[in-house]
Each structure stands twice: as C-alpha cells, then as structure tokens.
Design a protein that fits this description.
It comes from Candidatus Kurthia intestinigallinarum. The protein is α/β, with parallel strands linked by helices. Helices cover 34% and strands 25% of the residues. The chain has an eight-stranded mixed sheet with strand order 13-12-9-14-17-18-19-20, with helices on both faces. A six-stranded parallel sheet has the order 3-2-1-4-5-6, with helices on both faces. The protein has a two-stranded antiparallel sheet with strand order 7-8. The structure holds cytidine-5'-triphosphate. The site of cytidine-5'-triphosphate (CTP) has 14 residues, from helix 12 and strand 17.
C-alpha cells in the first residue's frame, strides 16, 4: 500500500529520535518515498546523516538553507507530501502547532501543508497527562489532525507509563492502512450528532439550561468525520469553534433541536445524541422581561420533547446512540434508557467526578448495547470518540 507514497517525516527532539531512524527504514522498505525534516533539538540526539542514508534524500532542518534556488523548501516539501508524520512529537511541537506557531523548518512546513498530518507523541507520562498538552491535543484533533497514541512501558526518564513512541512497525502498519480504501468505514454514511446543552427561554433575558460544554459531542462529530462520514452537527449554545468539514447547525431549544434532527432523520444512517437536552421548559415564555414581585414566586414548567425517544419510536434503518450522564446507579439508568428510548447503544458516564464528564477534557465511559458492554478507561474525549465509534462499527457492522 505504500509503494510510491510520499511521506514527509518531521522529527522533533526527544530520546525517541533513534526510533524515527528505524521508522524511515520500515517506511522505505514498504515502498514509500520518505523525506525528513528535523528540529534543532532532534539534531542533538541523532545526526541528520543517519536519516539521509536511510531515506536516500537530503535532510532539512534550517528554514533559511535553501538547497534549490527554484523552490522554497518548506513550501515545496509541504506540497510534495501525501502524508506528513510527526514522530516523535514532543509536547513543544504539539503546543506550537496547536497555537499556529511557525518558528522553525518543522513548524513552518506543518502550517504550509494541506496533506493529512499525523502526530505520534513521545514524552514523559506526566507531561502527556498535563492539562495543557491534553488541551493542545484536543485542539489539533478538532483541526482534523490524527494521533498515533504513545504506548505504555518503560520510559527513558525512568518512569513506567504512557509516553513511549509507538513502535516503527506499528506506525508503518497504521500508515499503510490509511492508504487502503476500506480504511474509511463510514464513507458514504450520513451521521447526525447533537451536542451541548439546550436553552429554554423564561423571558427575553433569562433561561433554563445546564453545564454541558459540548466537548464530547464535538469529539464524536469529528471522529465520525475522520472515519469518512458526512456529518451534520446540531448543537446548542457552546463556546467551541465550528469543526471543519461538516454541516454545522446552531439551535437553542429542545424543540428546535428535535426539528433540525427530524428533518434529516430519513437520510441518516447514525444518530448520536450527545446533547444534554433540558427536560423541562417554562410553560409560557414571557414576551417581556418578568419584573420581580414581593416575596417568593413559582414558575410552571412543562416537559420538552424527548428527542431520543421520538427518534427511537420512528426508527427504520438508523442506528441510534444515546448518552447517559449520571451521578449514581450509572448501569441501571443506562440500561433503562437503552430499552425505554429504543436506542442501539448508550454511552454512560459518571458526571459526579469533577475531572471527567461535563466540561472536562478527559472522559471515562461505559458503552452499553443490547447484550454488549465495554468499559473505556480515562482518555481524551477525542481519542475516546474514535474508540467508541470503531467499537460500535465493529459490533454492529456499518449501517446498511
Ligand atoms: N435526551 C433527549 N431528549 C430529552 C432528554 C434526553 O434526546 N428531552 C437524550 C439525551 O441526548 C441522551 C439521552 O436522551 O442521549 C439520555 O439523556 P439523560 O438526560 O441522561 O436522560 P433522561 O431521559 O433525561 O432521563 P433522566 O432525566 O431520568 O436521567
């Protein structure tokens, strides 16, 4: 699959640079053309000559050292690549790319390329767990960049944990798989994802809502997009930028969310209901600002439509995936929602913990199907979203 594929390998400075030499060897053995760019720090670990010998190409590391006067090297390399691989990727290079910083040959090329970019991080376990690094990784996921997660094991710094650059053989296998056409299991599929809270107006200046950040729903939408689906994201009020490469519909209330989804439901193959829909709304939204009165007051609330249950009742061929955010008896409530709402899967998370669930960047969930259950340990919401979708696809087969 790699014959004549053009892989641009960006190498940043960590002890795992030595493994990147083996990676070039594996990629070229598989038939790829490989060109290498190194950061200054990477050159502290391995001499560029090693990469030159392995790739049989010049190695680049200085933005201002233009080897060919006919082209600008970083633009030329950026345009040349079918795939750009950053391996090993340090916390520094991840941070720079997440923030659009281009101050060396690697980062200028990364901003200049329109080819898919894959990042294989390698760093100390605590660095990898740092909220700033997780934030940057999530940002890059949102930008459409894919990650080859580090494996766990003995780290050069003496720690045992997650942070080891994935083995060159595994990276080569993943890259090969990427170039196989069947690698996009959701290609040709329509996926609707709902995300964020809904907002139910009390009067022109007040509303009922909840603390949903929308992060998990956005992560699901991005994961579906990257697996090849045509995605429609229907979201309530959130503070997240629109993800690229999908149709994005902003709504406010549960009623509007229901309408937006129902009008697209027939054509949908998958519906992922990650939204935290308000269960009640004021019976009468006031047209003018409600003035305060002496003493206490009461507000009459009515039920909003249960969107997932409505979709469940009208289901023909669609695969319905709901969420259950619970603070207690997670399994009992999740299984109850699975049958009561006629869903195919429920993704349950315990929102009583502050470091996961609502607003957090990490999440721990359990996936419940009919006769199926799988727990997913704590990981970034974006990585988790891909794992969940891949599991659901493997379990159910791609929706016909
Ligand atoms: N849901 C929905 N419409 C609603 C309420 C919930 O579509 N009016 C969906 C959510 O998007 C989620 C699933 O139903 O996928 C479960 O949501 P949750 O709020 O946990 O469940 P509820 O049905 O509201 O049950 P309860 O309040 O008893 O937990």
């Amino acid at each position: 699959m790699l014959v004549n594929k053009k892989i641009l390998l960006c190498v940043s400075g960590g002890i795992a640079v030595y493994k990147a030499v083996a990676l070039v060897s594996k990629l070229t053995q598989a038939g790829a053309h490989v060109k290498v760019i190194m950061t200054e720090s990477a050159r502290q670990f391995v001499n560029p000559l090693s990469f030159q010998v392995m790739s049989k190409n010049d190695v680049f590391y200085d933005t201002f050292d233009e080897k060919d006067s006919h082209v600008i090297a970083h633009i030329d390399l950026a345009d040349w690549a079918d795939l750009v691989l950053v391996a090993p990727a340090t916390a520094n290079v991840i941070g720079k790319l997440a923030n659009g910083i281009a101050d060396d040959m690697v980062t200028t090329t990364l901003l200049a390329t329109t080819a898919p970019v894959w990042i294989a991080p390698a760093m100390n376990v605590h660095m990898y767990d740092h909220p700033a690094v997780l934030r940057n990784i999530d940002r890059l996921y949102a930008d459409g960049i894919r990650f080859i997660e580090p494996s766990a094991g003995y780290l050069a710094c003496g720690y045992v944990g997650k942070g080891r650059l994935e083995e060159p053989e595994k990276i080569t296998a993943l890259v090969s798989k990427f170039f196989e056409p069947q690698n996009l299991p959701l290609k040709g599929k329509q996926v609707i994802v709902s995300a964020g809270p809904t907002l139910e107006r009390i009067d022109p200046v007040r509303y009922l809502s909840n603390f949903s950040s929308g992060k998990m729903g956005y992560a699901m939408a991005e994961a579906a997009r990257d697996l090849g689906a045509a995605v429609t994201l229907v979201h309530g009020p959130v503070a997240l930028p629109d993800p690229s490469g999908m149709t994005v519909i902003a709504i406010e209330s549960a009623e509007q969310m229901l309408e937006a989804i129902l009008s697209r439901y027939d054509a949908a193959d998958y519906v992922i209901k990650a939204a935290a829909v308000a269960d009640y709304r004021p019976k009468q939204a006031a047209q003018q600002k409600v003035k305060k009165q002496q003493g206490d007051t009461q507000m009459e609330l009515e039920r909003t439509p249960d969107i997932l249950a409505t979709l469940g009742a009208q289901k023909t061929h669609q695969l319905l995936i709901g969420f259950a955010a619970e603070t207690n008896d997670v399994e009992t409530y999740a299984l109850d929602k699975l049958t009561r709402k006629n869903a195919d899967y429920i993704i349950a998370n315990d929102v009583s913990k502050t470091d996961r669930g609502f607003g957090a960047d990490q999440n721990t969930v359990t996936l419940y199907g009919h006769d199926f259950v799988q727990h997913f340990p704590s990981t970034s919401k974006r990585a988790l979203a891909t794992q969940l979708l891949e599991t659901i696809i493997a379990q159910s087969g791609v929706a016909k």
